Amino acid sequence: MTTAIAQDTITLTINGKTVTAASGKTILQVCRDSGIYVPTLCYDERLEAYGGCRLCLVEVKGQGRPLSSCTTPIREGMEVTTDSDRITRLRKTVLELLLSNHPNDCMLCEKAGACTLQELVYMYGVRYDNYYGEMWNLPKKDDNPFISYDPNKCVLCGRCVNICQNVVMKGTIDMTGRGFYSKPDTAFGKPLTPDICVFCGQCVSACPVGALTEKQARGKGRVGSVERVRTTCTYCGTGCNFYLNVNKGKIVKVTSDYAAPVNKGNLCVKGRFGYDFIQHPDRITKPLIRREGVTDTSPEVLKDPMAVFREAEWDEALDLVASKFMELKNKYGPDSVGGFSSSRCTNEENYLFAKWVRVALNTNNVDNCARV
Amino acid sequence: MAGLATSLGAGAASNSLEQIKDADVLFIFGSNTTEGHPIVSLHVNAAIRNGARIIIGDPRRIDLVKFSDVWLNLRPGSNIALLHGLIHIILRDGLQNDEFIKNRTEGFDELREAVKKYTPQYTQQITGVSVDKLEKAARLYAKAKNAMILYGLGVTEHHTGTENVMAIANLAFTCGHIGRPSTGIMALRGQNNVQGASDMGPAPNVYTGYQYVSKPEVREKFERAWDVKLPTIAGLKSVEMFDRAIEGTFKGLFTMGADTAHTDPNINHIWKAFDALEFFVVCDIFHTHTTRFADVILPGASFAEKDGTFTNGERRVQRVRKAIEPLAGMAEWQVLQELSKRMGFEMNYTHPSEIMDEIASLTPNYGGISYERIEKQGIQWPCPTKDHPGTTTLYELQFNRPSGKALFVAVEHAGSGELPNTEYPYVLITGRRLQHYNNGSMTRRVRGIMELSPEETIEINHADATRLNIAHGEKVRVSSRRGEIYVKAEVTQRSQAGNVFLAFHFEDALTNILTSGVRDPIAGTPEYKACAVRIDKL
Questions:
Q1: A284:B284 CB<8 A
Q2: How far from the centroid of its chain's Cα atoms is residue B396's Cα?
Q3: Residues of chain B contacting A276 with CB distance shorter than 8 Å
Q4: Which of A92, A132, B367, B394 could form a disulfide with B14, with the two C-beta atoms 3.0–4.6 Å apart?
Q5: What does the alpha-carbon distance between residue B312 and residue B436 come to, in Å, rounded to a whole number?
Q6: Is B194's Cβ below 8 Å from some Cβ in A?
Q7: Domain co-membership, A260 together with A295
Q8: Same domain for B488 and B364
């Protein structure tokens, strides 16, 4: 661990401006901290930088060749230039080479608008046809419920493989093949099944292009048409944050919040893909009152709940609940009634629930499922 | 949580998840972190990559075992013997932190006496864990610079659950592994807002922030704030409400967001209680085994339909934000307000943030929390004032007990409440699977998850399966003294011989028909992690 030495500060210049930063940081980190844009494809804060994509090249005075800023630690007195004709030329060449084997499919691509490659090609004004050569025409893989893989769009940045191996430590996918034929895949190209994959979708969250996408969200709204709402997951107690993507009142996707304090953009299968229930047709959307004279409480009730309950308006249901509780309280005393709340509810709801029991029922008969 | 509260003074995790990666030794006890808390397991992975040594205490060969230095494969229900066996070795070899014990704890002499009899041989006899493994684990933990304990429901869901937690605390105190970053005791909370629900005081003996209803000055504070006269004696715990419902003295219950008739143990008893109620209101988002007993069902709003906060397992209060309108038109905070008004008690909040402001004004640990402050990033309580940054590590200077010192509690091994015999020869452990969540009402409605994990299966060891002549995938009957269910067998090395494992996510295989009604008498937590069952070939 190298955290102990990271206390000293270092002064350097970037594009002529003096910057002070903690030693141990890389040029790229300091640039990002100071709001200086440097393009990257293979860089991911969750991973160890490896300098693969060559887009973050910068010039450092005294160094003959440009250096990859993501792997170069800062040094005292360093003079860094992040943009120059030479750097621009190099970046454009990298992008042209990537485009030489990339389907020109942005119109139909799920990732359009959120694709790093698309953005960089636009920014640098790169053309499609500068290099001709062989192109991939590989089958798309859709062999599982959650993750779509179009290898033809892969830019070989390695982030998906790296995150699966080193963060999830599952090793479901790796780089396979050599040279022109290398691509990320499962061993022997086998389908993704629960024996080999935990379906956390970290690979999807790491993919800078449209190679790995959320299968369920296909066609339901790209970045420009969705509203993203940052929230906290409703499943376990870890407290992961993510964005709910909403399109015309429908939740169409969950995407990573890379700044989240606990999970840094990582999620599990439930957090990332387990949102179908929210707008499921089985949701109870009206207050229900037990039909007069129906006493069945057996598991059969679940087969046809509407045979046992009838829909009611809020006013009717709430009037009934209020009057029944008042009646029981007056007849048997406040200690004959009570409330039971849940860890599934928010703090505010739990507070209000306890307050309601204590104030309106006038008893301390209130508990929650935390002990269970 | 009662265990941590007694030993340390607060029922909450002592440290932060972010600190896991910097620990030298992680002792993961009763937590299948990879499946129960997948993102916490990524922090464990980071620690492993940083060179941390891993000790696992779990009867099952969980995934993390393959990354561990020692797997303490204890018998279910032998947690205290195991922990005190480790302390025995540490004291025998003089590896304890004398300075910490002297300056920061009390009750050490009693503990020293209590652990005397847990020699490695005796501990091996009770726990089934070999002497070698005990010796190795004790030395690893004691000699670490910073050792952290992560524990899960495998510790608390026993009838000695509270004592188990105290024994964990004893181990941490003995070595002084608490009160610094990357040490301490992390209780991994099962549900999204277990911490928050506990903090908010829907509990029979405390208001928000664990302030006792029995203390006159506390009660008066709440009476002033709420403008009512409040009851002076503690109320009934949920189990007591259910028992009294059957007796006929408890008549009316409002349940919000809990499927007790599915997830409580020995559910036949719960069903009887709900049947006996004169009036039963359930608020939920789906029909569940609980709603079928209701007189009135009020539709709930999912987390995507309302503003609010959840408090995670490291005490971090974080925002929940409304993404869509409540499907039923109102969220619970509005429903409760309407109900209260109809009973003559006005509540006039226009937004949940106003409720949080009221919570902050009445709860010292939440004093500095407001929606404005947690807009970007959540804050970890204690956060007493508006300029307090929150607290990542508890107990750096003192513990939350009157003396300021941590308390060793000399607990004793007592075993499980129900032991296997010739009729019911297997110990059933229950827990969660990665893809599903609790009663499954949410995850069973996610199409992709049902493709991956469509039904319940029982994990059974090869040796047991061979003896019973059961093949992988064969349907079997699992029965206990309380009932029976039919599930497919999953023949595996994950469960050790003599133990079997079931989750509880499906409506048609109600695992909790089997589980026992035995509870931890202190916290009231049910013993989900051990009951005696038999397996029959059909």
A1: yes
A2: 24
A3: 445-448
A4: B394
A5: 19
A6: yes
A7: no
A8: no
